[in-house]
Amino acid sequence: MITSLPLVDLAGAAPPAPRPAAPEPQSAVAASGLRRIGRLDVAAITGDEALAIIELSIEARSELHVAFVNAHCVNVAAGDERYAATMRNFLSLPDGIGVDLGSRMLFGEAFPENLNGTDFVPFVLERATRDLRVALIGGEPGIVETAAERLGERFPRHRFLPIQHGYFSGGEETEAVIRLLRLVQADIVLVGLGVPRQENFIAETITAREVPVAIAVGAFLDFSAGKVPRAPSAVRRLRSEWLWRLALEPRRLAQRYVAGNPAFLLRMARQWLGREPSGDDTSP
Description:
Blueprint: E1 34-37, E2 40-43, H1 47-60, E3 64-69, H2 71-79, H3 81-86, E4 91-94, H4 97-107, H5 117-127, E5 133-138, H6 143-154, E6 159-164, H7 172-184, E7 188-192, H8 197-205, E8 213-216, H9 220-225, H10 233-237, H11 241-248, H12 250-272
Helix pairs in contact: 2-12, 4-12, 11-12
Protein name: Exopolysaccharide biosynthesis WecB/TagA/CpsF family protein
Keywords: Glycosyltransferase, Transferase
GO molecular function: hexosyltransferase activity
């Protein structure tokens, strides 16, 4: 069932304007370069550079899809052709110590910044040069409403629009979500459906007609709503938040981290040794 939209002021929504053709996301970072980690091309850019790309897309009302790549994403892409192909059209930002280790092994240096979604999205909201309309999709029932309320308190100059929880199916239910998203005329939509569903959903259903910038945010909405607590700042400074999350949700995350991290390191070693020159290995 589609959720209600209590925070939307439809009277304030501007009618759709003509949109220019969307540039390839990778072209925006050509000068800084892309780094192939497994099967994924990750942008070697700073937070300020990524923010500038997002703001340009909002200003031009041109399509931009953004995702965050961590070790788990690299592992998923190794065995999921649909997801790997989808990510070729995303601006993929480096998330976490895993991809930094991969970058050091393969390119001799870490990424310029760790641009994980839980910190980068607030950075965008804090530094944005214009007031934004931000739509929210994902999480359990009630999460987007709570997240919208809390984000509104934290960033009062922006308007947060709870569109739909994450428990909707394809077909008519997805079409209803897209119609509602098109109606509210947001500047950004944050989609938290988990990897790879959120990226596939964005790629297959969201265009500049609905919203210029779509960002796949993983658990950001859960964090924003207070459903999942962030790790203490000391743990985050050590870049060990994954251990904190594993301790909180061992059953759900054991496969991702306990089995996934060694698989990722093995995959990076194979790529470094030249056994995976194209990053197309699908072995564990």
